[in-house]
Here is the input.
Amino acid sequence: MDEWRQASAAELGRGIAAGGIDPEALAETFLDAIGAHPEASRIYARATPDRARAEAKAAAARARTGTRRGPLDGVPLSWKDLFDTAGIATEAGTALMKDRVPDADAAVLRTATLGGSVCLGKTHLSEIAFSGLGYNPITATPPNRHDPDAVPGGSSSGAAASVAFGLAPAAVGSDTGGSVRVPAAWADLVGFKPTHAALPLTGAVPLCTSFDTIGPLCRSVEDAGLIFALLAGRRVPDLRGGSLDGVRLAVPEALVMDDLDPSPAAAFDDAVARLEAAGATIVRLSVPMVAPAYDLAGILYSAEAWAWWRSRIEPSPGVMFSEIHERVSAGAGVSAADFVAGWDRLRELRRDWTAATGGVDAVLCPTVALMPPKVRDIAGGGDAYKAANLKTLRNTRLANLFGLPSVTLPTGTPACGLMLNGVAGSDLRLLRLAAAAERGLA
Here is the structure.
């Protein structure tokens, strides 16, 4: 049964369908692994064994009677600890929400449960999901897959670690500026950020609702497609048969290609060469609207985050990690006029992006511009923390600012991902392209 811990969600689902995997035994395998793993308390904020066993028992009964609800019926998932779980604490990685127990499941968890998935538990995250590093001195900092001294990436840090360390087949996280794709890339996983609003945010603790998205961290593009469909309650997408022949992929002439660490730069060049060898046409693309869009990020993100969090922060000064507190409270100084003008300008820039990229199928860049920093180098906060956090989220933020679906794929170089940014609203089209790219990279 240990091999189940390294299998993809899709493979486990097929095993259940074929009668070779019992959902109850599968759930127990992962619950036992969580209980025995020396780093489990840094990965899971809390496991949910009673819920998992009840859901697995129901899935096993459906499997026996031929009434499975979908390809992931009986497959366990972990959930970032900002998705509400009825009767189970949801704390968003912050002391501001300690012992908060919601009455109902988040909308996506409710839909996934109706689809037959099994909830293993809630995973740690960066405090209030407002950091790409994954360092959280308030609750826990999950381990990095490759380097015990490095940060894991965030904010869906525990989500990525749960999959990387074989404590879940796949995970559900959130992505406001890169929070699915950064930890997925640093853990050599697939991470998918759908188009904003493709999945409902009801019951997910917000950061910036204009940018918040929900997405899977998993072992394959097939898994990403299945989990996306599960969360949406939609028909399973067919990602087979795609080809890179005739596909036009753009490398942008923009800051996302600047100042790359040597390993991500080399991994990106090698991955692009493999995609070209597999039939893709690679073009260079001028996208001058990127830089001014990035200039708006501080205003738009901080103001919206402060609007929701201020009523919780102001009565409890001093309980947050200072860097997160400083970042979110910067929104207090943003005027309503500047916020509205910022959104008006960003909409213009989004139209410019659409016009500039209309002739390509996806825009490529390294998922993260740097390798995971050491915890010791950023734990004190200050300029080192700020610089590392901004550079970590720099490339992934592109898709959030321009409202695009985006997926990171492993390149084969540890902790170096390749990101494909698609066309707004064309999530399944991007997943089919990503499946073809996955085969090309292999």
